[in-house]
Every structure is written in C-alpha cells, then in structure tokens.
C-alpha cells in the first residue's frame, strides 16, 4: 500500500492485515506448488487458545491436516485481534502451536546465528551460547528488538523456548537468511540420536560373543529415517578386543545455533493449556502445607490460602504462589526470606472476593461464610498445573563435540 512505516492506529493495522493475508497465502501457495505440496491457512487469536473447546478444535484440525499430508500455515488473526486477546508476537504463537501438535523441533529464526552472552555487534569478544539446559540460569544478550515489519525480538524467543521446551519440544534459534541450516541442524541431531540407539543396542551384546555373531546382529540394526533430513550411516569398526561393534559415521559440526534442551518430563495436553493457554487474572498465595497437598494430587482447600491478589471471577485462571506464613494460621507471610515463588496456574471455583472471605476456613465452613458452597475446593486438582523444575543431564558443548570428532579420525 506504499506506506513508509507500520501504522499505529488499530483499524489501519487490521485493514492492512486483511489485505496482506490474501497476498501472503498466494505467495506460500506459489512456493509450495513447485513441490506439489498442499497447504492450509489457520488464523488464531488468544481467545481461540483460552477457550478449551476451541483449543481442542484447533488441535484436532492441525492433527488432521498433518495426517492428510497438508502443511498448515499458521498466523495470528490480526484482522480481529485487539490488545487484550493478542499473542503479541509470532514466537509465542509458534511455541503454543508446536506444543499443540507435539512437534519434535521448533525453529525460531532471527538475524544472528545464535544467542550470545553480550551484543556481538558491539562486543567482538561476545561468546556464543550453543546449548541451554536450564532457561532459568540463562544469561544472554536480548538487545535484538525484531524488525520494523515483524513482531518479536530475542527476549520473546527465549520466552517461546521456555514454553516449547516445557512441552518436550527441542527449540533452535538460528539465522533466517540461511534456511539450509534447518536441514543440517536436524540431520546432525537425528544422527546423534541414531548413534545413541546403536550404542545401546551394541551394549546389549555379550562381550564373549564372537565377531561373526556380532556382525550378523549389526545387519539387523535399523535406523528410522522418516524424512530426507534424517541420515545415519552404520560402519563396522574393530575394537581392541578383536570384536566388531556398530558405529555411526561422525557428521561434520552443525551450523552455529542455540539449542534449548526439552524438559525430561514434558507438560502436555490439558496441563500445558492451563499453564500457557490461559492468561492469569490474579494470584492466589498458598502456604507450604497446601503446596505439599497439591503435590500429592489433592485439590486446593480454603485452609491453605494465605492471600488473594487481583480481581478475577469463577473459572478464570490465576497464578499459584507459595509463601511462608509468619505464624500458624496467620495471613501475614515472608516477603524475602524465603521469597514467594510461583509454582503453577489454576482455574478457580470462586471469585477473588469470595476467596478472601473463606481463606483459612475449613470446607465445612464455606456455606456459613458465603451462604452457599459451590465446591469444597478453591480449585480442583484437575484444574491445577505445575511448571517443571527438573534438572537435566549435562550436554556436550561445541568444543567437546569437536574433540570427539577429532578423536575418531
């Protein structure tokens, strides 16, 4: 439309989005037509994710399209979105989509190779961060603010990586102007997985078996290769004891990128939706006894509630924050030592005003305080989701991978 810059007035943005959607899908269709690959368009808003039925409908549509061999092109429905229901950036949208379909990988493309501990444009000594095992401990430069026509910068990519890895999705940050990096990175990762599989199968062989029996066993070794980017070659390599064991050809080092390791115990389906699909409208502070009960699969009772913050209604999402009471039965809690910490999200059965009136009470006393009792629980256990706090094993750095490759030649 020959505009010099992105407009700020919402109706203009929405009107341009309606025009752009047609042009964008036409371009995608032309590109994929060369490979005779059918595509589909899915436009989402935050409301589509927040409503459980619509969330499941969207998830089922994704799954069916994939089964049909159709590639979904996903974008935010900017023609309808307003500030209150916007994702705000495509990074968050892509992370939620990846979790919905339980993707193996999520690639977040940007204008730099990877994350750095400082801005590489101003600091020539900036160090690349190639593997992130715990995002909570990450110290990285996030000064990249995104492009003038797009949404999201490095900070939103880290947030998206947190969402995706919690759902078990390996997340990669790499350059957008080198699309071939995607295939190379996946090929390397898949070859490492195949190598681990081969090593596990080899370890099951008895050390007393002859070389002939082991050679026969390697002929039965199968490596899954569901796509063109997955490649692994098995060779027979003599070991020091004269036997033969399967070994994978070491691939060259992958292109520079940052890889976020997925959680060992992924959060999926309803619990992921509770944690990341819903926008919290307030906070419920609970004591450590209530936290232990929730960990044992019990619901949240009024007796364990210390404080309420915000103005929320029934069946709205809230943050669950654990605090230390200053004394038994007190509604005062420690603000610094120990500091409060958020453990998850919940859909509540009572409003903020109602919870303030029944906090600290027994369930049998709810009716007396309110004149009614919709539930004995502030929140049912099935409507409470905890975030992951699982430690991960160490992951080899690029330097250790280089040394490993050199040792093989």
From TrEMBL:
Give the CC-aspect GO terms.
cytosol
InterPro entries on file: AceGlu_kinase-like_sf, Asp/Glu/Uridylate_kinase, G5K_ProB, Glu/AcGlu_kinase, Glu_5kinase, Glu_5kinase/COase_Synthase, Glutamate_5-kinase_CS, PUA
Task: Please state every residue range assigned to the domain named PUA.
Answer: 282-379
What keywords would UniProt list here? Amino-acid biosynthesis, ATP-binding, Cytoplasm, Kinase, Nucleotide-binding, Proline biosynthesis, Transferase
Where is the sequence biased in composition, kind Low complexity? 204-213
| Any GO MF annotation of the entry | RNA binding
Q: Name one GO biological process term.
A: alpha-amino acid biosynthetic process
* Residue numbers spanned by region Disordered: 199-221, 389-409
Q: PROSITE patterns from the entry?
A: GLUTAMATE_5_KINASE, PUA
Report if keyword Iron is assigned.
Answer: no
Question: What's a Pfam family this protein contains?
Answer: AA_kinase
Q: Does the keyword Cytoplasm apply?
A: yes
Stated name of the protein? Glutamate 5-kinase
